[in-house]
Amino acid sequence: MSAIPTISLHDFDARRQVILAELMSAATDVGFFTLSNHGIPQDDIAAAFELSRTFFALDDEVKAKTALNGKNAGWEKNTQVRPSTGTADQKESMQLQFARMEGLWPSDTDVEGFQDRASKFMHQVQDVEGKSFGANFWRAGAHADFDILTMLFQRDGEGGLEVCPGRVVVDDYGMGADWLPVEARSDRIVCNIGDQLMRWSDDRLKSTYHRVRLPEGDEPRGPRYSIAFFNQARGGVLIQGPQKKYPAITGAQFIADALARNRMQSAAIAAQARLVDAEKVATEVHFVPAHLKAAA
Ligand SMILES: O=C(O)CCC(=O)C(=O)O
Ligand SMILES: [Fe+2]
């Protein structure tokens, strides 16, 4: 395989069967694909990136008012440790959800209309569905996503996302040697199958390892923004494939197990690499900031 397939959603109603066949083929062979003609206006995507830029430009103390709450919502910076590196990703993120966001929306004083603007874009997506660092630093270290389907928006030319096809079973940590670049284009939505859907399909649909590398050679050293929409199974839903290859598991238990496995693997690899601070970092990945501890 030499490229990530692109699937066009134009004339959706008339082409439903063709699109379905293309999606099945991409999801079983590669686990990654990009969507073109997806119907979200380019201006709305640009507006979402502008909102993102406005938020991340705030001082860390301001962003920390809505810090990660231990439930996958809120702001974090340099805290995500991947089992493949044992070192914190060099990035910050703002994780938004449709529910359970009490106290986690930036205020209108800090970013005018943040909640309305972000929610509008989340619904639109739902409607479709620096510096020189050492060798062990990644914008995002190699990992597979825990969810059903991830939909990722990138900006033109802000590359570095790479995919490694070839995972065999959902609990297999093996990675191949060949990494395929995913072109950074603002008019495409990058989609990848996550672990929940891999398990739900008895490993037929592939959740693949992917990573974001730092700029190399002559590539621009500026910031890279991306917006990821993680579709997870509802907490109470039972996940089991038609062939019953794996026992049934609830969506919530699947995520809890995946997070626990991630922490164990991160700590193990960090110990192995003798990165003295990394184990400490690994145990603090899902930190609860002091000001939210009382409420948690
Ligand atoms: O930064 C990116 O574009 C990808 C991040 C990613 O793979 C993730 O957060 O799961
Ligand atoms: Fe990911």
UniProtKB/TrEMBL annotation:
Residues 116-233 form the Fe2OG dioxygenase domain. Signal peptide: none annotated. Keywords: Iron, Metal-binding, Oxidoreductase. InterPro entries: DIOX_N (IPR026992), IPNS-like_FE2OG_OXY (IPR044861), IPNS-like_sf (IPR027443), Iron_ascorbate_oxido_reductase (IPR050231), Oxoglu/Fe-dep_dioxygenase_dom (IPR005123). PROSITE patterns: FE2OG_OXY (PS51471). Belongs to the iron/ascorbate-dependent oxidoreductase family. PANTHER family: 2-OXOGLUTARATE (2OG) AND FE(II)-DEPENDENT OXYGENASE SUPERFAMILY PROTEIN-RELATED (PTHR47990). This is Fe2OG dioxygenase domain-containing protein. It comes from Vanrija albida.
